[in-house]
Design goal:
75% helix, 5 helices
């Protein structure tokens, strides 16, 4: 029985050390790091925009003059805050650790592939680099098929 376990362990070690599997795992790790960077950048940008919105709100409460640009920024940021709280709060209420985060990422990518933006605008870079869109998914599939062939 012990020899059988060793054979199974040796098989899986051999399987996961194959160059193709290593490349797939490395690609998944790069994708995860890119997504983590996108989310952390988005959270930082949202914090800065919310601080600016608070400054505009304080100015309004003091009955100071507010420009059209400030009104536009305020409306946009309030909409982003409501959208993010409406999406993130229910998802983050899952009791298991990281399940809510994974569910949010999966929902975001699924809806983004249908050109629906679930999160506030600062979570999506202007150049759409390293974001899963229908075009990037198709390009990755073509690249993967060439790699596997």
């Amino acid at each position: 029985m012990n020899a059988f376990r060793k054979k199974i362990i040796a098989y899986f070690l051999n399987l996961f050390t194959l160059p193709l599997v290593k490349e797939v795992i490395a690609g998944s790790a790069r994708l995860f790091l890119g997504e983590a960077d996108r989310y952390s950048t988005g959270i930082r940008a949202e914090a800065v925009e919310t601080k600016e919105t608070f400054t505009i709100l304080a100015k309004f409460i003091k009955k100071d003059k507010i420009s059209r640009e400030e009104k536009r920024k305020f409306k946009k940021q309030v909409f982003d805050i409501l959208r993010s709280s409406g999406v993130m709060v229910p998802v983050m209420l899952f009791p298991l650790p990281f399940v809510g985060t994974l569910l949010l990422i999966i929902m975001d990518h699924l809806l983004l592939s249908m050109n629906i933006r679930l999160l506030p605008a600062s979570f999506y870079p202007q150049d759409k680099k390293d974001i899963l869109t229908p075009e990037s998914i198709e390009k990755d599939l073509i690249k993967e098929n060439k790699f596997l062939a």
